Each structure stands twice: as C-alpha cells, then as structure tokens.
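REQUEST ID: PR-0412
SUBMITTED BY: lab tech R.K.
PRIORITY: routine
TASK: structure prediction, single protein chain
INPUT:
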Amino acid sequence: MHIAPSRDHFDAGAFRAGTPGTTTVVHLNAAGAGLPPRIVTETVMHHLAEEARVGPHWAAARAQDDLHGVRAAAAELLQCRPYNVAFGGSAGTMWAMAFLAMPMKRRSRVLVARSEWAGNVLNLMKRRLADAITIDIMPVDEQSGRIDVERVADLIDERTAAICLPVAASGFGVRQPVELLAALPRPEGCLLLVDGAQAVGQFPVGMANTGADVLVAPSRKWLRGPRGEAIMALSDRALERLGDPPVLSQVGSSWTGIDSYATRADARRFETYEFSVAGRLGLGAAITYALRHRIENIRDVIRARLGRLHAGLAAIPGVTVFEGDPANAAFLTFTTSVVAPGELNDRFAEANIAAAVVDRDYARADLEARGLKAVNRVAPHAYTSEEDIDRFLDIVSAASRGTCWRNAS
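STATUS: complete
OUTPUT:
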C-alpha cells in the first residue's frame, strides 16, 4: 500500500498537540482516542485532496490497490486471512451486526463479562427481548478483577450459544483471560465474541492467539487511526455459523434475480457500500505504522509509562488505583477521597491535560459491583513523556490536599 514518507518516531515531542503560542496539551486519553501519527493525517489529507481534484468516485477507483493493501495489513495485524476481515464505521456496530446475525434458539444462553462494553450489552438486551435468551454475567475474582475461568467452566452447558467479553474493558484496565476462556469445552455452535477496543494496537492480540470467533477493534484508540473506522475479524467457524447481517448492502450481497439475492461467504458480507475512503486509507496507514514499529515494542513503552503512573498515584494519600499490576493493564483507573472524578477531570482540562471519566453509563455492572459511581481514567500511549506524567501527577497531588469526598452508591 502506498503511503507518503514520514519521520514519525516515539519521541514524545513529535506528537505534541496545540498550536504555536499556546500551552501544550498533555494527551493521556488514548483509551478514548489516540493522537494520530503524522503519516495518518498526511494519508487522509492526500486522499481528500485527490477527491477535490478528480471527484470521490474516480479517487476511490484509483485507490483500489491501496484499499486492498489496507485489508492485507489488517489481516496481518489480527492474525488471519484477508478473507476473514471486514471494515465498518465502529467496533460496536460491527459487534452488534455479528451478534444479531447469529442464529439462536429461544432460551439460548449467553455468558457475558461484567465489564462488557455498554453498547454491546444494549444489543444483548435487545436480543433477549426478541428471542427470550438468557444473559448470565460471568463470575469475577474480586481481588484481581479478572473473570474466574474455573467457575465459568461450570456455567457452560448445552444451551450456551455465545461467550462475550473484552480483552480489557473501558471501565477498568485489567486484561482478561481470553485465551483461557477460549480453551474451555463448549458446544460446537457456541461463539466467542471478543471486544478488542482497549487492546488492539498496544497488545499483540489476534485471532490466532486469542481463539476468538469474532474480534472487533476501532481505528481511533490504540491504533491511532481516524475516527469512524473499525475492523472485525471472523473465524471460519463464525463465517459458517453467522447468517445474513441485519442490514444488507450490495457490497455484502448480490441481487441475483428479480426476487432473489445471495450473500457473500467471506467477512465482507458485513461491509456497506458507503464509507470514507480517506478514513479507510488512514486506518491502513495507522496499522502499517504500528506493524513497522512492532506492537511488542509499543507495549513495552506503554508499560513503562503505566509503571511510572502507578507508582506516582499509589504514593499520593487518598488515591485508590484499581489495577494492581500495571504491567498487564491497558490503562489505569483511580479515585481520590477528596475530589469527585468529574471535578478532578475538569482540573485536568484547565491544565490542558486530556484524561477521562468512566461512569455508569459506560460500565454500570462493574461500577455497581464495586460500589462506585465513577472513576478517573488515565491512558498514556508511546508518545507520552515522563514530563507529561509528572505534570499529571502534580494535579492529582494538589487535588488530594482538599476536603474529603465519597464516591459510593
């Protein structure tokens, strides 16, 4: 695939936000959306300029080889064949498309992580209303925050049609034992649906090493690609098991007769005709960038940043960090006994620090189980410097010297 040359590297200074004459933004919200490498922005802008010059359709036609290259790069990233890769507008939408295309008998059973993404849970509940399926939350080891694999094994029975979990949730950054769950005996038709939103791009996560049947990931988080792009990989078993998508498009299905159609056998049955070619090429540039720098190397840098953050937060009186082992966490979440998460995040914003708050709209089951209303979330990437982290910790330290506040139900 053709992408313009770039001098991007992991020097944090090369990725600073802001404009000349303004205070630099410290970006610590890669779990929401990472800062794009220069090559991603250049690739998007290059195609937009081509669209302005010759029109969107001609520009798209001329980019077909590059678009095939994006699919090949995504397949390499997710450890599968291009045949098994589909693209869409968001990871949540693609997850829902796959789940809603799964044939299920009435009273089928779905096992779901307590930490499952809110959008996925909403579609689980929608399916429960339509097909009278049963949704059971998988047990968790409260000390580690990880799903208890042995207890899950006892829950799987002949009615179990799907097991759904994230590699790491958006609410708490603990990495879940996806591989161990995939190895559990389960009915032949039971699919493992894995949300890789907080993992793909910073962990070497793919179909081969997770055992997933459905794996989704957005472009904008750890891959640092454009917003509005996402990838889904489907196992051969999933492709055989899943039926037509809830919505058909002439990309995924063909009008074969005046009153008949045929749906593709490969993962592209879930794709739609309309998409941003510039955004898709930007996603390809992001994947190529990540593969060139090696995911393992990117993770090593992030791990070091998380270790520094964890040590700094743990040393501040009144701060509770919910990830015990930063080496295996996607990001860190914490609360202070002094300042509410929303107020603390406002203080970060006033200091030009981009962080996040996760509340019950996004992680209701996990937060309620812990007796919490919300948590602060800090998510550094490879472009984060030690100075960025120290600036962040200074704000938390200053805030901790206020009056007590209770974060409880």
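NOTES: The radius of gyration is 22 Å.
REVIEWED BY: pending
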